[in-house]
Amino acid sequence: MAVNYKLYQCKRAGKFNGKWYARAVHNGVIGTDELAEIMQRNCTLKKSDIKAVLTELVEVLQDELQNSKRVRLDGLGSFKLGISSSAAETAKDYSPVKHVRGVHVLFMPESKADAGSRKRSKVLVNGTRLAELTNYNVDKTVAEASGEEEGGH
After folding, report:
1. Which residues lie closer than 8 Å to 130 by C-beta, 6 or more apart?
2. Residue 8 burial class via C-beta count within 10 angstroms: exposed 0-12, middle 13-18, buried 19 and up
3. Spatial separation of the C-alpha atoms in residues 133 and 23, rounded to whole Å
4. Where are the alpha helices (DSSP H) in 32-140?
5. Which of 5, 92, 109, 120 could form a disulfide with 22 if both were Cys (CB 3.0 to 4.6 A apart)?
6. C-alpha–C-alpha distance, residues 55 and 67, integer Å
7. Read out DSSP for 91-121?
8. pLDDT, tens digit, 9 for 90 and up, residues 30-79
9. Is the sign of the CA dihedral 64, 105, 40, 122 positive or negative?
10. What percent of the chain has pLDDT above 70?
11. Rg over CA atoms, the chain
12. Exposed, middle or buried by CB within 10 Å (0-12, 13-18, 19+), for 35?
């Protein structure tokens, strides 16, 4: 198995315009039912037990995050909530109702130190292989320089 990618050309004005980059291509979504089915085949638990645990995990994760906790799942990573906020001129002028634009979830994958080096690697991406998607059109012989299509890098 490999992570599929396709090439795209940056069309934004500036120093990256016309440069080529890889973009991950996702070929579907896997939900709780499908995960539980796979997990059932790999262990002694029944699908219904796994779904119950995953459902409860989501509820407890939400409660603990909203209680200002960072939640670490060993082997997976840590979750915490972040806040997007606009500035106030002074601390006295700051109002959450006026200045908070939103709350979002931040995820940091678990990382481990590589033996014999100072490098750290993220557990979820260790051993990832890449493969270029085969069923899309991109002309690798001619660099397109026109800015017709909007897009970022």
Report:
1. 2, 3, 4, 5, 22
2. middle
3. 10
4. 32-42, 47-65, 96-99
5. 5
6. 19
7. TTT--HHHHEEEEEEEEEE-EEEPTTSS-EE
8. 999 999 999 999 999 999 999 999 999 999 999 999 999 999 999 999 99
9. negative
10. 92
11. 22
12. middle
CA nearest neighbour of 123 among 110, 137, 136, 139 = 110
Say how far apart CA 39 and CA 33 lie, in whole Å: 10
The residue written with tokens 């806040």 in the block is: 83
- What does the block give as tokens for 129? 């292989």
Residues 121, 122, 127, 131, Cα dihedral to 10°: -120
Provide mean pLDDT across the span 80-98. Answer: 96
DSSP character at residue 72: E
Short-list 16, 11, 6, CA closest to 145: 11
Specify whether the CB–CB gap between 110 and 77 falls below 8 A: yes
Alpha-carbon dihedral sign for residues 68, 72, 76, 78:
positive
- Residue 39 buriedness (CB in 10 A; 0-12 / 13-18 / 19+): middle
CB 6, CB 151: distance < 8 Å: no
pLDDT at 119: 81
